[in-house]
Each structure stands twice: as structure tokens, then as C-alpha cells.
Amino acid sequence: MIKILFLTIFCLIKSLSTLRNPLLFLSFDGLQSAKFEEFLIQNPNSNFSRIIRNGLKSDYLKPSTPTFTFPNHYTLITGLYPESNGIVNNVIYDPNYKEKGALKDNFDLKWYNSTEPIFYTAKKQGLKTASSFWISNNVWPRQPDIFLAFNRNYDPFLRIDELINWYIKFNLDFACMYFDEPDLTGHIYGPESNEYKQKIVFMDSVLGYLLNELERINILKKLNLIVASDHGMAQLDENQFIYLRDYVDLNLIDFDKSVIAIVSSIYPKTQDKLGELYEKLAKIPHMKVYLKNDIPKELHYSNNERIGPIVVFSDEGYRLMDKNYTYIDYGAHGYDANLTSMRAVFMAKGPNLRSGSVKPFENVNIYPLMCKLLEIKCLPNNASEVFSPDHLYNKYIQYECLQSDLCGGWADRLKGILSSYAFALITDRSLTIKLTKGCNLREILDPNEVDWNYEKTENKNLSETSINMGYDFGYSDKFKTDISMFTNLKNIDLIRVRGPMMFANGLRDNQNLTEKIKSLGYEPSKFHTAFQIHKWYSKLFKMNKKMKEKYDFYLKKMKPSSDTKLICIQIRKSDPGDKETDVFPETRFFDFVNSTFLNTSDTHKYTIFVASSKDYVKLDAKRYFKDNRVVYVDNSSFHIDVNVNECDQIENVLLEFNLMQNCDIGVVSHSGFGMLALLNRPDPFKDFYVFTKPYNDSMKMSNEEFISNWLNIATFVKFDKLGSVYFAP
Ligand SMILES: *[C@@H]1O[C@H](CO)[C@@H](O)[C@H](O)[C@H]1NC(C)=O
Ligand SMILES: *[C@@H]1O[C@H](CO)[C@@H](O)[C@H](O)[C@H]1NC(C)=O
Ligand SMILES: *[C@@H]1O[C@H](CO)[C@@H](O)[C@H](O)[C@H]1NC(C)=O
Ligand SMILES: *[C@@H]1O[C@H](CO)[C@@H](O)[C@H](O)[C@H]1NC(C)=O
Ligand SMILES: *[C@@H]1O[C@H](CO)[C@@H](O)[C@H](O)[C@H]1NC(C)=O
Ligand SMILES: *[C@@H]1O[C@H](CO)[C@@H](O)[C@H](O)[C@H]1NC(C)=O
Ligand SMILES: *[C@@H]1O[C@H](CO)[C@@H](O)[C@H](O)[C@H]1NC(C)=O
Ligand SMILES: *[C@@H]1O[C@H](CO)[C@@H](O)[C@H](O)[C@H]1NC(C)=O
Ligand SMILES: *[C@@H]1O[C@H](CO)[C@@H](O)[C@H](O)[C@H]1NC(C)=O
Ligand SMILES: *[C@@H]1O[C@H](CO)[C@@H](O)[C@H](O)[C@H]1NC(C)=O
Ligand SMILES: *[C@@H]1O[C@H](CO)[C@@H](O)[C@H](O)[C@H]1NC(C)=O
């Protein structure tokens, strides 16, 4: 069935999108990146991994100075360094107000009015916003529409229930949510402790509960989710205190104004003592002391009246103290933002976020990302260009097989989908699938890592192009030498592709794409459906519950015990050519299997699975292999393109397609279905024979010659490497 390639491209007018997806921003206080990475390795199926898989992640997030909770949480929602957002410490002395306040107890606007938080900015621009437990969310009047004030005794699961209620009641555009763990545990036991480790595991289950709830209320799929932490955590030796009284005459210090902590703001009792006090402090070991004007610029920690005339930064592990410390604890933060221990985490996933990694970046940059996702106007901020349009998806590739389209059979469709997926990977697009011909696959398969989310692209006002590939045997060659057709479409939001494309192997051979393919984690020569089908198929599709039950039922019959050898024979009677001419003599398949594999003494261990477009072939097999168990799926699997409206048929095709992944030995027709099914085994080329002709001379033959001489030419060719069979997987 070799048909003429046809290709049409037509562009529609570009216009702006109007529908925004909701954004949820989560913070896990004190989640240190190194410990988090360890957790991920030890818990590959964690709930955090659900975000990271197909999400956007950085190795770490650099916190702002000082690496305390309040300053950094305000940075996260304002995009401003603490010196510019006014929250310069957890406890602040403001010389204008002549007042010192601990932010945990002070909710007067005057402490927060240097700027406004995103939930308020977005609300003013007409969005529905909410915040749970986040710093300043209860500061009147710069509040979101709905909020809960911080309360340490409030169970995290109940907070989630509350958030879920908000989602149900209101059409929330933006929400942020703060969790005070694993910080609390980190302070008590230190990041190296088992307790801290266990707390990350616990917070993972909290996250899992949230994700499950969001899924239950049908929000998760359309949600852009960002997860971050404010800072890391350093392990302490309990004795590493620096007591001021041991070094300095305390009468030199104005304690009403000074804030003594890991990062301290120190005022002299009288201005004329500044020099003397600085000299004394500067001699104390294990800390860095600066006059305000000498603080290194890259710390962005001087340009604010709330920062005192002398600033002290304790070295990692040390704590400057003005009072005797009576607790025993093993963790702290506030240290140099460049330290590994202070590194925070960043991950994000959602329909408007591409997957992959983003270089470690400063936490001021999350704010404009959120503005972009929310499609609101940002306030001035300190972000640099970390997030480019490349990280934000509004770009899709959509594989389409609609009622009136020429789609081919299941293998053709699958090749189109997998090639589109390869293309999506290469071009950082989101893959969507719209497959309604024959049967809507959504009734059989569950979405996996890729959603059946084509409705979303339909609701949006996107610029788009359709590419109709038609039947494309050999089309992949075009991509070996030229990918301009796709690079030229870079700015198009939605590329609809129709027809059985097989260009993934062409992409593989294009030198210009080698680096990109490697960066995706593939060996370029294996960026090919023959090697990737198992991986990609299981990413894209999984059987739904009903299909899985059927599958399990047949698999038990096919492999009754672990030492069963399963031989699969797939005979498509009408191939080649379009007419149902029954050209393939099934006995040649049976004789080949009998003479090649059943000439041993342990034949009782062999089960034979037969798939065919004709039921009588299966009955013949039963008569032929008298000494073996012969298994087949009750109804024939037709070529689905012929009978377009029979959902049962695609069910059986897919059932057989999945079952054949378990074959130890495979003997198949020159048919995409059988060949792709066997290639979908973990070891694709294991004991694999195709009734066809060797690749080399088949290419020299005309279509007519090929079909008319088929029976004379075809033999059982061992398919042990790419190119050994005339077939373009
Ligand atoms: C899509 O864009 C067009 C042209 O800008 C506009 O007239 C139309 O209202 C938009 N549709 C939606 C659903 O936003
Ligand atoms: C913040 O509020 C205080 C007290 O009302 C006021 O003196 C100050 O000017 C305000 N600052 C800004 C930036 O609005
Ligand atoms: C994910 O979260 C759920 C819900 O809390 C929890 O039951 C499950 O154990 C977590 N998954 C893993 C792998 O820990
Ligand atoms: C603080 O500790 C020092 C040294 O142990 C001791 O001399 C002093 O009395 C303590 N001060 C208070 C207020 O407990
Ligand atoms: C911290 O790292 C940045 C680069 O990320 C560098 O420019 C800066 O000098 C470092 N600061 C310190 C105090 O080491
Ligand atoms: C940060 O942004 C604020 C507001 O635009 C600006 O005033 C300040 O100078 C910026 N800081 C830096 C280091 O660029
Ligand atoms: C590779 O990229 C260069 C520069 O854009 C272009 O000239 C060349 O044609 C490309 N080669 C292929 C094989 O696509
Ligand atoms: C069975 O036949 C195959 C193919 O002719 C041959 O390679 C194999 O050695 C035979 N096995 C036995 C046990 O004779
Ligand atoms: C299968 O092969 C054996 C020889 O290995 C032969 O004796 C037997 O007749 C064959 N079975 C059929 C049904 O042809
Ligand atoms: C086979 O077809 C019959 C009649 O259409 C149907 O009742 C039966 O459920 C089908 N069996 C399978 C396994 O699909
Ligand atoms: C081409 O295929 C034939 C078998 O049909 C084989 O004998 C021959 O060696 C092949 N030629 C090459 C160059 O691989």
C-alpha cells in the first residue's frame, strides 16, 4: 500500500488567547535542594516526581539575602530583593516608625507597604485570588479575595480541604499556599537527621493528597503548578554560638533598635560609637561584619532604611547571640545564599509550562513567570530574563485522525502519534491527540503523561497550521537533510498533523538536531520509534481498567506459568494490496514455526498466540498445532480503517497489540500492526521474523512488481536490526 505523498500547509490568522489556566504556587519552608534530590532518588515514584516528570525543574533555586523565611516569602510573591520589598529580616526595626516588630505578630500594612504581593495585584486586575498561610495574606487591605492566616496548629490536610473548597466555590485564577514543614523539623533535628528526611516523605504525602484532590475536582489537568522553597537548611553543632558579651561591651549597642540573629542589624548606642563598635565586632571570629555602605553589591542587601548601620553575617553553622540560648537544636538558615546548604528547590508543571530543566536561578525570577502565566501586568521587579517564551507553552503539536481523514490502521496512527511526540520533544511543544476515527481511543486508553487535551487548544485563539502528510513511506528522508519545514513554523502556536508520519527517524539523522536529542537524554542513533516505542508508548498510553481486565484474562491463558514460551503469529490475509484477496497462506507461517521452533523435546512449554484479520485462520492454527495450547482473542482484529465505526474492533486491535508485547518469539506478516507490536517489547529485536523480502532489492522494484511477485519473493526474514526488513518504523 504505497501511496503518493501529499502535503499541504495553510496558515490561519494569529490572534491572542483569552482563556487563562489557573495557577497554584506552593511553598515548602526550609526544603533544602540537596536533601530533596536525595529524597527523589530514594523515592522515584513520589508525589513530587509527579510534578517533575514532564515538568520544568532547576537543580536548585537561589534564595535572596538574608536567607530567612519572611524576607524570601515576600520576595517570591513580589519579585523584589528584600532590600526592595522592605522585609529585610524576620524582625525589623524601622527608623521612620521608631518601632521594632516581629513580623509573625505584626499585620499592619505599614510593615509591608513598599510593594504589593501578586495576589493583590492580580485581584486588582480582575482575577480571583486566594492565599493560604502565606506571609502578609492577612494584611488589610492588600489581601487576596480569600485567605487563611497562618496558624501553626492547623492540620495541613485540613488546609488542603479548605483550598479545595475554594476551588469548588470560586473560579480561582491564582492561589498560593504555604507549608511550614520541613523547616520546623529541620530546625530541631538538622537536615542530616532521619527526622528531616522523614518529614520530606510526610510532606510528599501532603502534596499527594493535594494533587489527588485537585484531580478529583478536575482542576489538576488545567492547572499550572509551581512548587518552591524559601531557603535550605544547615546542620548545626549545638555549641557554635557567638555570644556578643564575650567580645563587646554591651553598653555600646542599642538593643532597642538592633536585631541580633544569624544576620544581624546592629545600632550603636550613640552615633559617635559606630567606629569603635564596628572595630570590636570585626574582630569576632566566624562572622563577617560590614558597615552598611560596604556590603557587597551582589548581596542586594543595603539599600533600605530598615537595614542597620552595621550588618553581621554569621558563618555557616554559627549563630550570633545576645542572650543565653537554652534550646538544643541542630538546624538553621540565614547563611550565605551561595552556600549549598541554603539552596532551595524549584519545580513547575502545567499546560503552559514546557518540560525540561532550567538553569539554577535567583528566586526573584518566579514572580514574572507567574505574571506571564496569569497574563497580568507585573509591577517593577528585580527579575532577569530567566524564563523566556521557550519555557512557556502556548505551543502545541496535535496529531489528528478525524472521521474524514486518511489515517491508516492502528500502526499507521501509532507511528503518526509517536512521530508527533518525537517532534514535540525536539521542538518543545506540548503533544495533544485528537483521534476520533474508528473509535475514540479515550474509551479504551487512559491518558498517561500526555493528556487527551485537544479541547483546550480548540478553546484558545491560537495561530495554527495544518500539515497533511498523507501516506508517507520514506518521507522521513526529507528530515535527514532539511528540517526547515518545521523550523519555519517556530512561531505558530498549533501545528495540526494528519496522516501516518514516520519522520522521527529522519529527525534522528539530522546533524542539526544531534545536540538537542542528546540534551533530551537520548542516544541520537536510537532516537527512533523502533527503539523508543516501548518507552514512548508506555508514556503516552495506558489501558483503562476495563481493558486491563481483558488483557490480564488473556495473558493468563497465554502464559500460564513462568517457563511458558510464547510464540506469536500474526497473519494479515489481505496484505499487500488493498483488496481482501486472502493472499497469505497461513500454512507457510505454521510450517515455519513448526520446523524452526517446535523441533525440540520440550514443545509442551510452547503456547501459540494467533492474531489475524480472519477468524478461520485461528481455527486452522488450532487444528495444526494439536500438541500445543493455541490462544486467540475471540473476534478478528480487522484493519480498523476499513470498518470505521466499530469500537469493538479497535478494542481488539489494541488488546492484541498489548498482548504481543509478551511474546518470546514473533512471526508476523509484513504489516505495521504486527511489527510495531513486537517492537514494543522491552527487547524489540528478540526472535523476530517477518514474512517479507529482504530490504535491499525490494527498494528497486515497482509497486506492481512487488505485489504481483509477493508470494514468490517473500520469506521469513529475521528482523534483528534496523534495515533488515523493508519497513520504515
Ligand atoms: C479570537 O480572536 C478574534 C480576532 O482577534 C476575535 O474576534 C475573537 O473574539 C477571539 N475569540 C475568542 C474566543 O477570544
Ligand atoms: C507605608 O506606610 C507608612 C505608615 O503609614 C508611611 O509612612 C509610608 O510612607 C508608607 N510607605 C509607602 C511606600 O507607601
Ligand atoms: C503520595 O501521596 C499519597 C496521598 O497522601 C500517599 O498515600 C502516597 O503514599 C504518596 N506516594 C508515595 C509514593 O509516597
Ligand atoms: C548566661 O550564661 C552565662 C555563662 O554561662 C552565665 O554566666 C549567665 O549568668 C547567664 N545569664 C543568664 C541570664 O542566664
Ligand atoms: C555568589 O555567587 C555569585 C554567582 O552566582 C557570584 O557572582 C557572587 O560573587 C557569589 N558571592 C559570594 C559572596 O560568594
Ligand atoms: C529592584 O527593583 C526595584 C523596583 O524596580 C528597583 O528600585 C531596584 O533598584 C532594583 N534592584 C536592583 C538591584 O536592580
Ligand atoms: C543545519 O542548519 C544550518 C544553519 O541553520 C542550515 O544551513 C543547514 O541547512 C541545516 N542542515 C540540515 C541538515 O538541516
Ligand atoms: C530446529 O530447527 C532450527 C531451524 O532449522 C535449527 O536451527 C535448530 O537447531 C533445530 N533444533 C533442534 C533441536 O534440532
Ligand atoms: C511439525 O514438524 C514435525 C517435524 O519436526 C513433523 O513431524 C510434523 O508433521 C509437523 N507438523 C505438521 C502439522 O506439519
Ligand atoms: C466478539 O463479538 C461478539 C459479537 O459481536 C461479542 O458479543 C463479543 O463480546 C466479542 N468478543 C470480544 C472478546 O470482543
Ligand atoms: C540482497 O538480498 C538478497 C536476498 O534477497 C541477498 O542474497 C543479498 O546478499 C542482498 N544484498 C546485499 C547487498 O545485502
UniProtKB/TrEMBL annotation:
Entry GO MF terms: hydrolase activity
Pfam families reported for this sequence: Phosphodiest
InterPro entries associated with the record: Alkaline_phosphatase_core_sf, Phosphodiest/P_Trfase
Name of the protein in question: Uncharacterized protein
Organism field: Brachionus calyciflorus
PANTHER family, per database record: BIS(5'-ADENOSYL)-TRIPHOSPHATASE, ECTONUCLEOTIDE PYROPHOSPHATASE/PHOSPHODIESTERASE
Signal peptide residue numbers: 1-18
Key words of the record: Signal
Keyword hit for Iron: no
Keyword Signal included in the entry's annotation: yes
